[in-house]
Amino acid sequence: MRLLARAALTALATVAPLAVVPGVVAPGPAVASAAGAAEFQLDGRGWGHGKGMSQWGAQGAATKGLGFRQIVNFYYPGTRVGSATGDIRVLLTAETRQALVVGHRSGLSVRSVSSGASYPLSRAGATRWRITPSSDNATSRVWVYTDSWHLVRSIAGQAEFVAPSMRLYLPSGSKVYRGKLRSASAGGQRDVVNIVSLETYLRGVVPREMPALWKAEALKAQAVAARSYAAYERANSSRGHFDVYDTTQSQVYGGAGDEQPQTDAAIAATRGEIRAYGGTPAFTQFSSSNGGWTVKGSQPYLVARADPYDPVRTWHWTLTQAELRAAAPGIGTATAVTVVARDGHGDWGGRAVTVRVTGTLKTVDVPADTFRSRIGLLSTYFRRV
Q1: Is the alpha carbon torsion for 307, 23, 78, 12 positive or negative?
Q2: Going by C-beta distance under 8 Å and a sequence separation of 6 or more, which residues neighbour residue 69?
Q3: What pLDDT is stored for residue 23 in this prediction?
Q4: How far is the C-alpha of 251 from the C-alpha of 245, rounded, in Å?
Q5: pLDDT exceeds 90 at position 200
Q6: pLDDT in tens, 207-227
């Protein structure tokens, strides 16, 4: 089953400088060593950073009969029921050109962001419409494609296409989105931003973050967590022309083409509901599986605790010399890999905090999150075999 549940992974994947990180001293050596260009074997558990809600844990809790509020209460202790409404601005990262191109359809219009003036778009033989910026980025130029591209109108500042739904043409193909598609200014560049209601946004998020055939209460818990996470980012980010990314830098969002009846029902059943802390949206991080222990995060409600609901997803990894050189540059040939500090929560002394890579040229201590991201390990909850 495909697992795309890694909403906050990107922040953890940011490469940190090589250094010794204070932590609980690892019990026992936890060393893998060999002569020459050896490979090193790891056993691991959990998929993702382990903070907040485990999605496999939510499914496990729902299977045991817990309701969605009981699930989110467990994973975000100290938070309370809150509410969030309004629109959210989503950066569509797949569009890398200075253009916004949509398919022709009835009811399509183009709108000036600054003045609010709207112009219906209709042209015999039209198949696509396009917005491009002027060379100084001060004007939006609206084009129609019939036999070729023809300039239709110039609009001061930013402009957006508006219709109940639109097919957006991207360098990699096309997708259908609801709401507005804006050619938004980003310094001297233009980005494509989808502006939709928070509820509509969730319809394109929840089925990408959790399998739609899972238990209804797990899906509801995911809807509340995803809505809270989006509301938190909207309130706390300073990204200018958008609020959230459509990738794991925020939450994976696929637009109207990813909507599913089961997740639509979960979103409708929890409409507007979020988790709040101190009267504001909570930072409801979540990941696929925590391996049986949640991980302490940056907020009081992101605590480390045993998780009786997570089924403990396990994995095995063979570390190659190339991977170790990427994780700890300049070591030469790795001769030993040692976990020198753990967080103290769970089996094996908990998750790795610091990994020491010994090589023929030097020895380097690497923060476990950096070690994980540079290699692509599923989590920092691992030990040597």
Answers
A1: negative
A2: 81
A3: 39
A4: 7
A5: yes
A6: 999 999 999 999 999 999 999
Q: Convert the pLDDT of each residue in 329-357 to its tens digit.
A: 999 999 999 999 999 999 999 999 999 99
Whole-number Å distance between alpha carbons of 368 and 381 = 9
- pLDDT at position 129 is 98
pLDDT score at 22: 35
Q: What is the pLDDT of residue 14?
A: 33
CA 379 – CA 371 distance, rounded (Å): 10
Q: Where are the alpha helices (DSSP H) in the chain?
A: 9-13, 55-63, 68-75, 198-203, 206-209, 216-236, 261-269, 321-327, 368-375
Sign of the CA dihedral 292, 296, 300, 302?
negative
247-291 pLDDT, tens per residue?
999 999 999 999 999 999 999 999 999 999 999 999 999 999 999
Instruction: Give the pLDDT confidence of 11-21 residue by residue, as tens digits.
Output: 333 333 333 33
DSSP string, 116-130: --EEE---TT--EEE
Residues 6+ apart with CB under 8 A from 308: none
* Ranges of each domain in the chain: 38-79+285-384, 88-197
Task: Show the tokens assigned to 247.
Answer: 């990738």
Q: How far apart are CA 87 and CA 244, in angstroms?
A: 11
Query: For residues 48 and 296, is the Cβ–Cβ distance under 8 A?
Result: no
CA dist., res. 51 & res. 48, Å (int): 8
CB atoms within 10 A of CB 333: 14
**Confidence category of residue 368, pLDDT binned at 50, 70, 90:** very high
Gap between the Cα atoms of 291 and 345, Å rounded: 11
- Characterize 112-139 residue by residue with b for buried, 16 or more Cβ atoms within 10 angstroms of its Cβ, and e for exposed: bbeeeeeeebeeeebeebbbbbeeebee
CA angle (230, 210, 169) in 5-degree steps: 70
Residues 6+ apart with CB under 8 A from 218: 55, 58, 59, 61, 62, 68, 71, 210
